[in-house]
Amino acid sequence: MIGQKIGFIGGGNMARSLVGGLINNGFPAGFLRVADINTEALATLQADFGVTTTQDNQDVVQNSDVVIFAVKPQVMKQVLEPLGGLINRAQPLIMSIAAGVREQDISAWVGGQVAVVRCMPNTPALVSAGVTGLYANAHVSPDQRQVASAIMDAVGITFWVDGEAKMDAVTAASGSGPAYFFLVMEAMEAAAVELGLKPEQARKMAIETAYGAAKMARESENSPSVLRANVTSEGGTTAAALDVFERHHLKGLFREAMQAAHHRSEELGELIGQS
């Protein structure tokens, strides 16, 4: 991947995280180029990482083997359409991290058959602990797949899905997923305060307990269900708490919530494509 020139259109938080992750992994700053309308964001990127910056999107396309679109979904069409002719001539790999924007719409907006990889990262990518689902259209070569994986691996782990419809499931599971865990931590914190802990103690306890449990699950060969059973003694305190969750059908609530997120992801994709 070192020989590839990578350009970003959009210099917000996710682009900044990817730039930082790539450079930390040894990718040369001179091979990175970022375009944005925000001159302050560009100045910060240039100062912090030494990358080339510009306000000209065409400059990025002309000078990149890979172009990563890191803009808001609702502006993807107006950003892509003026670049269509240039993209068709240059034929860079197009990577989109705009949530919900379908590959067929990206291809239609640029007016040609181009290599497109859709990426669904989640917000922990901002701290290099992300999970990114990837989908490639038929024009993406095996080498381009490797490049796309390597770029997103700079901010976490990646996996490929074999059908674009599964990206809605990725959105429901990992894209929206951090908010589910934040809600659990928020609830634990509030309950611990009611039980007598100081707010700062309760917050630290909730966060560190979540971190410790995730670390154990990540490093263990056992499934989460086995790990849960291992810390649950019959008739003990953990069993008493889990019994409450079972009575209130916690697993069913998660299923219903994720189905709602999945459905909304499908809806938003249709709305963006019709805009």
Report on the structure:
- There is one protein chain.
- The protein has 275 residues and is an alpha/beta fold.
- It has two domains: 6-170, Rossmann fold; 177-263, ProC C-terminal domain-like (ProC C-terminal domain-like fold, Orthogonal Bundle), CATH 1.10.3730.10.
- Helix content is 56%, strand content 13%.
- The protein is built from 13 helices and eight strands.
- The chain has helices at residues 13-24, 39-49, 57-62, 76-80, 84-90, 103-110, 142-153, 166-175, 177-194, 199-219, 224-230, 237-247, 250-274; strands at 6-9, 32-35, 52-54, 66-69, 93-96, 116-120, 130-136, 156-160.
- Helix 8 (166-175) packs across helix 13 (250-274) and helix 9 (177-194) crosses helix 10 (199-219).
- The protein is elongated and about 70 Å long.
- It starts with 5 loop residues before the first strand and ends with a helix.
